[in-house]
Amino acid sequence: MTPLRASQPGPRRRGTLIGVRLLVVEDEERLARALKRGLEAEGFVVDLAADGPAGLEAARYGDYAAVILDIMLPRLSGYRVVQALRAERNWVPVLMLSAKDGEYDQADGLDAGADDYLTKPFSYVVLLARLRALLRRGAPERPAVLAVGDLTLDPASREVARAGVGVSLTAREYSLLEYLMRHHGEALSKIAILDHVWEAGADTDPNVVEVYVGYLRRKIDTPFGRRSVRTVRGVGYRIVDDLAGGTGRTGSAGATEPGRGGSAGAGSATGSGRTGSAGATEADQTGSAGGAGAGRGGSAGAG
Protein backbone atom coordinates (compact mmCIF):
# COMPACT_ATOMS: atom_id res chain seq x y z
CA MET A 1 0.00 0.00 0.00
CA THR A 2 1.19 3.52 -0.78
CA PRO A 3 0.89 5.40 2.53
CA LEU A 4 -0.60 8.78 3.08
CA ARG A 5 1.76 11.18 4.77
CA ALA A 6 1.22 11.99 8.40
CA SER A 7 -1.47 14.63 7.87
CA GLN A 8 -4.88 12.97 8.11
CA PRO A 9 -8.38 14.42 7.76
CA GLY A 10 -9.34 16.43 10.81
CA PRO A 11 -12.40 18.24 12.04
CA ARG A 12 -11.75 21.46 10.11
CA ARG A 13 -13.23 21.49 6.61
CA ARG A 14 -12.18 24.74 5.01
CA GLY A 15 -14.15 25.42 1.82
CA THR A 16 -15.13 21.80 1.14
CA LEU A 17 -18.38 21.51 -0.80
CA ILE A 18 -20.75 19.08 0.90
CA GLY A 19 -22.26 16.51 -1.45
CA VAL A 20 -19.81 17.08 -4.33
CA ARG A 21 -19.33 13.81 -6.28
CA LEU A 22 -15.82 12.56 -6.92
CA LEU A 23 -14.55 9.52 -8.80
CA VAL A 24 -11.41 7.78 -7.52
CA VAL A 25 -9.78 5.42 -10.06
CA GLU A 26 -7.18 3.43 -8.11
CA ASP A 27 -6.27 -0.26 -8.31
CA GLU A 28 -4.66 -0.44 -4.83
CA GLU A 29 -7.71 -1.46 -2.83
CA ARG A 30 -6.43 -0.33 0.58
CA LEU A 31 -5.41 3.09 -0.73
CA ALA A 32 -8.69 3.47 -2.59
CA ARG A 33 -10.67 2.66 0.57
CA ALA A 34 -8.55 5.07 2.63
CA LEU A 35 -9.15 7.85 0.11
CA LYS A 36 -12.86 7.12 0.08
CA ARG A 37 -13.10 7.26 3.88
CA GLY A 38 -11.07 10.44 4.15
CA LEU A 39 -12.88 12.28 1.38
CA GLU A 40 -16.30 11.22 2.66
CA ALA A 41 -15.31 12.53 6.09
CA GLU A 42 -14.81 15.91 4.39
CA GLY A 43 -18.34 15.79 2.95
CA PHE A 44 -17.62 14.49 -0.56
CA VAL A 45 -19.61 11.71 -2.20
CA VAL A 46 -17.05 9.21 -3.56
CA ASP A 47 -17.31 6.39 -6.11
CA LEU A 48 -14.48 3.94 -6.78
CA ALA A 49 -13.23 2.25 -9.94
CA ALA A 50 -10.42 -0.31 -9.88
CA ASP A 51 -9.16 -0.36 -13.48
CA GLY A 52 -8.85 1.85 -16.54
CA PRO A 53 -11.92 0.76 -18.55
CA ALA A 54 -14.18 0.96 -15.48
CA GLY A 55 -12.83 4.39 -14.63
CA LEU A 56 -13.31 5.64 -18.20
CA GLU A 57 -16.88 4.36 -18.31
CA ALA A 58 -17.72 5.94 -14.96
CA ALA A 59 -16.14 9.28 -15.91
CA ARG A 60 -18.07 9.34 -19.17
CA TYR A 61 -21.50 8.95 -17.62
CA GLY A 62 -21.18 9.71 -13.91
CA ASP A 63 -21.47 13.52 -13.88
CA TYR A 64 -18.54 13.95 -11.46
CA ALA A 65 -17.17 17.27 -10.23
CA ALA A 66 -13.61 15.87 -10.44
CA VAL A 67 -11.69 12.61 -10.98
CA ILE A 68 -8.67 11.37 -8.99
CA LEU A 69 -6.84 9.10 -11.41
CA ASP A 70 -3.94 6.70 -10.94
CA ILE A 71 -1.62 6.14 -13.92
CA MET A 72 -0.54 2.51 -13.59
CA LEU A 73 -3.97 0.93 -13.90
CA PRO A 74 -4.88 -2.57 -15.16
CA ARG A 75 -6.04 -2.86 -18.78
CA LEU A 76 -5.90 0.86 -19.62
CA SER A 77 -3.41 3.38 -18.24
CA GLY A 78 -4.41 6.67 -16.67
CA TYR A 79 -2.74 8.45 -19.60
CA ARG A 80 -5.07 6.67 -22.03
CA VAL A 81 -8.11 7.33 -19.85
CA VAL A 82 -7.60 11.10 -19.74
CA GLN A 83 -6.70 11.21 -23.45
CA ALA A 84 -9.94 9.41 -24.29
CA LEU A 85 -11.98 11.81 -22.15
CA ARG A 86 -10.44 14.88 -23.76
CA ALA A 87 -10.85 13.42 -27.25
CA GLU A 88 -14.56 13.09 -26.46
CA ARG A 89 -14.60 16.72 -25.25
CA ASN A 90 -15.24 15.64 -21.69
CA TRP A 91 -13.67 18.39 -19.57
CA VAL A 92 -14.18 16.93 -16.09
CA PRO A 93 -11.23 18.10 -13.93
CA VAL A 94 -8.66 15.31 -13.52
CA LEU A 95 -6.04 15.09 -10.77
CA MET A 96 -3.46 12.37 -11.46
CA LEU A 97 -2.24 10.57 -8.34
CA SER A 98 0.71 8.31 -9.04
CA ALA A 99 3.92 6.79 -7.71
CA LYS A 100 5.56 7.81 -11.03
CA ASP A 101 7.42 10.85 -9.75
CA GLY A 102 9.79 11.62 -12.64
CA GLU A 103 9.55 15.05 -14.20
CA TYR A 104 8.77 13.55 -17.61
CA ASP A 105 6.05 11.35 -16.09
CA GLN A 106 4.41 14.45 -14.67
CA ALA A 107 4.82 16.36 -17.93
CA ASP A 108 3.28 13.45 -19.88
CA GLY A 109 0.28 13.37 -17.57
CA LEU A 110 -0.36 17.09 -17.87
CA ASP A 111 0.18 17.08 -21.64
CA ALA A 112 -2.26 14.17 -21.96
CA GLY A 113 -4.97 16.43 -20.53
CA ALA A 114 -4.77 16.14 -16.73
CA ASP A 115 -5.30 19.34 -14.76
CA ASP A 116 -3.00 18.53 -11.84
CA TYR A 117 -0.51 15.85 -10.76
CA LEU A 118 0.31 14.67 -7.23
CA THR A 119 2.93 12.04 -6.46
CA LYS A 120 2.65 9.23 -3.89
CA PRO A 121 3.17 9.28 -0.97
CA PHE A 122 1.20 12.49 -0.65
CA SER A 123 -0.05 14.93 1.95
CA TYR A 124 -3.78 14.60 2.56
CA VAL A 125 -3.94 18.33 3.31
CA VAL A 126 -2.35 19.12 -0.07
CA LEU A 127 -4.68 16.68 -1.85
CA LEU A 128 -7.73 18.45 -0.39
CA ALA A 129 -6.33 21.88 -1.27
CA ARG A 130 -5.70 20.83 -4.86
CA LEU A 131 -9.18 19.36 -5.14
CA ARG A 132 -10.67 22.61 -3.90
CA ALA A 133 -8.61 24.51 -6.48
CA LEU A 134 -9.85 22.23 -9.28
CA LEU A 135 -13.45 22.69 -8.17
CA ARG A 136 -13.05 26.47 -8.11
CA ARG A 137 -11.85 26.43 -11.72
CA GLY A 138 -14.83 24.40 -12.88
CA ALA A 139 -14.77 22.52 -16.18
CA PRO A 140 -14.29 24.96 -19.08
CA GLU A 141 -13.05 23.64 -22.40
CA ARG A 142 -9.26 23.16 -22.22
CA PRO A 143 -8.26 20.76 -25.00
CA ALA A 144 -4.77 19.32 -25.02
CA VAL A 145 -4.71 19.96 -28.79
CA LEU A 146 -6.06 23.32 -30.00
CA ALA A 147 -8.39 23.20 -33.00
CA VAL A 148 -10.18 25.75 -35.14
CA GLY A 149 -12.06 23.81 -37.78
CA ASP A 150 -9.55 21.47 -39.41
CA LEU A 151 -6.56 23.53 -38.27
CA THR A 152 -4.86 21.90 -35.27
CA LEU A 153 -1.97 22.89 -33.01
CA ASP A 154 -0.44 20.54 -30.43
CA PRO A 155 1.40 22.55 -27.74
CA ALA A 156 3.21 19.45 -26.46
CA SER A 157 4.73 18.37 -29.78
CA ARG A 158 4.58 21.86 -31.36
CA GLU A 159 3.03 20.34 -34.46
CA VAL A 160 0.60 22.24 -36.67
CA ALA A 161 -1.61 20.69 -39.34
CA ARG A 162 -4.35 21.76 -41.72
CA ALA A 163 -6.75 18.94 -42.66
CA GLY A 164 -4.11 16.44 -41.51
CA VAL A 165 -1.34 18.00 -43.63
CA GLY A 166 1.65 19.17 -41.61
CA VAL A 167 2.51 22.87 -41.75
CA SER A 168 6.02 24.03 -40.87
CA LEU A 169 6.20 27.33 -38.97
CA THR A 170 8.96 29.46 -37.54
CA ALA A 171 8.99 29.91 -33.78
CA ARG A 172 7.44 33.39 -34.04
CA GLU A 173 4.75 32.25 -36.46
CA TYR A 174 3.93 29.36 -34.14
CA SER A 175 3.59 31.70 -31.14
CA LEU A 176 1.32 34.03 -33.13
CA LEU A 177 -0.88 31.15 -34.28
CA GLU A 178 -1.10 29.69 -30.76
CA TYR A 179 -2.20 33.03 -29.33
CA LEU A 180 -4.83 33.48 -32.04
CA MET A 181 -6.14 29.93 -31.57
CA ARG A 182 -6.35 30.23 -27.79
CA HIS A 183 -8.62 33.24 -28.41
CA HIS A 184 -10.38 32.00 -31.53
CA GLY A 185 -13.32 34.11 -32.58
CA GLU A 186 -12.05 37.10 -30.58
CA ALA A 187 -10.81 40.29 -32.25
CA LEU A 188 -7.26 40.86 -30.96
CA SER A 189 -5.51 44.21 -31.33
CA LYS A 190 -1.99 44.55 -32.67
CA ILE A 191 -0.86 45.83 -29.26
CA ALA A 192 -2.34 42.79 -27.47
CA ILE A 193 -0.61 40.48 -29.96
CA LEU A 194 2.70 42.32 -29.53
CA ASP A 195 2.45 42.04 -25.75
CA HIS A 196 1.87 38.27 -25.84
CA VAL A 197 3.99 37.13 -28.82
CA TRP A 198 6.99 39.48 -28.79
CA GLU A 199 9.44 40.19 -25.99
CA ALA A 200 8.04 42.35 -23.22
CA GLY A 201 9.53 45.82 -23.22
CA ALA A 202 10.96 45.52 -26.73
CA ASP A 203 10.56 48.65 -28.87
CA THR A 204 8.81 46.82 -31.71
CA ASP A 205 6.85 48.52 -34.47
CA PRO A 206 3.20 47.32 -34.29
CA ASN A 207 3.31 46.87 -38.09
CA VAL A 208 5.43 43.77 -37.53
CA VAL A 209 2.19 42.03 -36.55
CA GLU A 210 0.78 42.71 -40.03
CA VAL A 211 3.93 41.29 -41.58
CA TYR A 212 3.71 38.07 -39.58
CA VAL A 213 -0.01 37.70 -40.17
CA GLY A 214 0.88 37.76 -43.86
CA TYR A 215 3.49 35.04 -43.35
CA LEU A 216 0.99 32.95 -41.40
CA ARG A 217 -1.75 33.27 -44.02
CA ARG A 218 0.66 32.11 -46.72
CA LYS A 219 1.21 28.89 -44.77
CA ILE A 220 -2.08 27.94 -43.11
CA ASP A 221 -4.61 29.49 -45.50
CA THR A 222 -3.44 30.26 -49.05
CA PRO A 223 -2.12 26.77 -49.98
CA PHE A 224 -5.44 25.26 -48.88
CA GLY A 225 -7.73 27.85 -50.46
CA ARG A 226 -8.82 29.06 -47.03
CA ARG A 227 -9.13 32.39 -45.17
CA SER A 228 -9.35 31.66 -41.48
CA VAL A 229 -7.18 34.58 -40.34
CA ARG A 230 -9.41 37.66 -40.70
CA THR A 231 -8.62 41.37 -40.53
CA VAL A 232 -11.00 43.41 -38.35
CA ARG A 233 -10.90 47.05 -39.44
CA GLY A 234 -9.88 49.39 -36.70
CA VAL A 235 -9.15 46.55 -34.28
CA GLY A 236 -6.71 43.87 -35.44
CA TYR A 237 -7.12 40.20 -36.27
CA ARG A 238 -9.11 37.11 -35.38
CA ILE A 239 -9.01 33.47 -36.40
CA VAL A 240 -12.24 31.65 -37.27
CA ASP A 241 -13.44 28.36 -38.70
CA ASP A 242 -14.07 29.59 -42.24
CA LEU A 243 -15.85 26.36 -43.22
CA ALA A 244 -18.52 26.87 -40.55
CA GLY A 245 -20.30 29.39 -42.75
CA GLY A 246 -19.95 32.38 -40.38
CA THR A 247 -17.96 35.58 -40.69
CA GLY A 248 -16.34 35.23 -37.29
CA ARG A 249 -17.78 38.51 -36.00
CA THR A 250 -17.95 38.87 -32.23
CA GLY A 251 -19.41 42.35 -32.06
CA SER A 252 -16.13 44.29 -32.13
CA ALA A 253 -15.93 47.47 -34.16
CA GLY A 254 -15.41 47.01 -37.88
CA ALA A 255 -16.42 44.48 -40.48
CA THR A 256 -14.30 41.44 -41.10
CA GLU A 257 -12.28 41.71 -44.27
CA PRO A 258 -11.31 38.85 -46.56
CA GLY A 259 -8.01 37.28 -45.55
CA ARG A 260 -5.38 39.31 -47.29
CA GLY A 261 -1.75 38.38 -47.50
CA GLY A 262 -0.39 41.02 -45.15
CA SER A 263 2.56 43.30 -45.96
CA ALA A 264 3.98 43.51 -49.42
CA GLY A 265 6.87 41.38 -50.39
CA ALA A 266 6.67 38.73 -47.69
CA GLY A 267 7.84 35.73 -49.63
CA SER A 268 7.50 32.73 -47.33
CA ALA A 269 7.28 29.05 -48.13
CA THR A 270 3.93 27.35 -47.59
CA GLY A 271 5.22 24.42 -45.60
CA SER A 272 2.39 22.08 -46.61
CA GLY A 273 3.23 18.41 -46.36
CA ARG A 274 6.19 19.00 -44.08
CA THR A 275 6.62 17.74 -40.59
CA GLY A 276 4.72 20.55 -38.89
CA SER A 277 7.24 21.17 -36.11
CA ALA A 278 7.47 24.80 -35.07
CA GLY A 279 10.93 26.27 -35.39
CA ALA A 280 13.08 28.70 -37.25
CA THR A 281 16.03 28.26 -39.57
CA GLU A 282 16.11 31.91 -40.59
CA ALA A 283 16.60 35.14 -38.69
CA ASP A 284 13.39 36.53 -37.25
CA GLN A 285 12.23 39.65 -39.10
CA THR A 286 11.97 42.85 -37.11
CA GLY A 287 8.79 44.06 -38.74
CA SER A 288 9.73 46.19 -41.76
CA ALA A 289 7.51 45.52 -44.78
CA GLY A 290 9.19 43.66 -47.60
CA GLY A 291 11.02 41.05 -45.51
CA ALA A 292 11.48 37.96 -47.70
CA GLY A 293 12.20 34.33 -47.05
CA ALA A 294 10.43 33.92 -43.71
CA GLY A 295 8.71 30.76 -42.74
CA ARG A 296 10.94 27.89 -43.73
CA GLY A 297 10.52 25.00 -41.33
CA GLY A 298 12.93 23.56 -38.89
CA SER A 299 13.32 22.26 -35.39
CA ALA A 300 12.12 24.40 -32.51
CA GLY A 301 14.40 27.34 -32.11
CA ALA A 302 14.73 31.04 -31.64
CA GLY A 303 12.22 33.11 -33.61
Describe the structure.
The protein is an alpha/beta fold and 303 residues long. The protein folds into 2 domains: 21-137, Response regulator (Rossmann fold), CATH 3.40.50; 146-257, Orthogonal Bundle (Arc Repressor Mutant, subunit A). The chain contains 8 helices and 13 strands. The strands form 3 sheets. The protein has a 5-stranded parallel β-sheet with strand order 2-1-3-4-5, with helices on both faces. Strands 6-7-8-9 form a 4-stranded antiparallel β-sheet, covered by helices on one side. Strands 10-12-11-13 form a 4-stranded antiparallel β-sheet. Helix 4 links the parallel strand 4 (94-98) and strand 5. Mean pLDDT is 77; it is low at 1-16 and 246-303.
Summarize the structure.
With 303 residues, this protein is an alpha/beta fold. The chain has helices spanning 29-41, 52-61, 78-87, 103-112, 124-137, 171-182, 190-197, 207-220; strands at residues 21-25, 45-49, 66-69, 94-98, 116-119, 146-148, 151-154, 159-162, 165-167, 188-189, 229-232, 236-239, 256-257.
Brief descriptors of the model:
single chain; Rossmann fold; Arc Repressor Mutant, subunit A; five-stranded parallel beta sheet; 13 strands; 16% strand; elongated
Helix count from the secondary structure assignment: 8
Q: How many structural domains in the coordinates? A: 2
Q: Helix/strand-derived class?
A: alpha/beta
Strand segment count: 13
Fourth-level CATH superfamily of the largest domain? Response regulator
Query: What is the average per-residue confidence, as pLDDT, rounded to a whole number?
Result: 77
- CATH domain class name of the largest domain: Alpha Beta
Question: Could you tell me how far the N terminus lies from the C terminus, measured between alpha carbons in angstroms?
Answer: 49 Å
The largest beta-sheet arranges its strands as: 2-1-3-4-5
Overall geometry comes to: elongated
At CATH level 2, the architecture of the largest domain is 3-Layer(aba) Sandwich
Strand content: 15-25%
**How do the helices and strands follow one another from N- to C-terminus?**
EHEHEHEHEHEEEEHEHHEEE
Radius of gyration: 23 Å
| Major sheet details | 5 strands, parallel
CATH topology of the largest domain: Rossmann fold
* Helical coverage, percent range: 25-40%
> pLDDT under 50 segments (min length 5)?
1-16, 246-303
